[in-house]
Amino acid sequence: MDSTHGNKNRKLHGALLIAMLVVFLVVYNRKLLMDWYDPQPAAVVHTPNMRRAANPWNRYHADSCIQIVKDGDLVLRSGSDAISALFKKVNTRDKSYSHAGIVFIENGYPMVYNLIGNAEDPEAVLRRDSLSAFISPHDNTAYAVYRYKLSRQQVEKLHDLSIRYFKEKRRFDPHFDLATDSSLYCTEFVYKAMIEVTGDKKYLGTTQTANFSFVSVDNLFLKKGIKLVCKIVYIQ
After folding, report:
1. Nearest-angstrom CA–CA distance, 225 and 221
2. C-alpha distances out from residue 3 to 6, 7, 8, 13, 170, Å
3. Number of domains making up the chain
4. Which range marks the domain in which residue 18 is found?
5. What is the CATH number of the domain that holds 211?
6. Are residues 105 and 62 in the same domain?
7. pTM of the entire structure?
8. What is the pLDDT of residues 205-235, one digit of tens each?
9. Residues 120-153: pLDDT tens digits?
10. Residue 144 CB burial class (10 angstroms; 0-12, 13-18, ≥19)
């Protein structure tokens, strides 16, 4: 009888001990249990690039440009990286933009022919990027589109020249040497293409620093007679 009563007491004490442990775990591990039942997404670090890309105003104004560009338009952008900041400083009159390309509508969509190179890609060649990627708010802080005063024949010649350079895989010129044509940098591509299609060696100007002559981005659009099509500064 006493043995049976003792067993019951031990079972009761054991049950109480287990209950106390459960209460202890619940009280001191509420957050752990809540996360287990209702897991929360990991915290996301929102970089300036991500904020620009997610902004509805920026997305709308990036897409709106796609509807109004025409063959032969000059597209400029202001990159958000450190290299772009250096290229903007090279401009002497307007430091708004760091890169340039020429757009053509191909298969119903605007594509930008441009040259860009860096240390990670020393073998870079002339590329053809979608306009939406070229002016993306994720990688840029602003962009603009300008239109040269060209005849239809000149625009067609410009397109043919761009395609030819693209197929030839015309390489990026890391030395920024205007004397060579086998390799080009972004603004040099536009500069020499416009000279070839117009036949005017003074169609666009250059920038002179000491004994070095080069084509800066502002040489391409600070020109009499050029038309501003659109200009957007993204919300940061």
Report:
1. 10
2. 5, 6, 9, 15, 97
3. 2
4. 2-37
5. 3.90.1720.10
6. yes
7. 0.80
8. 999 988 899 999 999 999 999 999 999 999 9
9. 676 899 999 999 999 999 999 999 999 999 999 9
10. buried
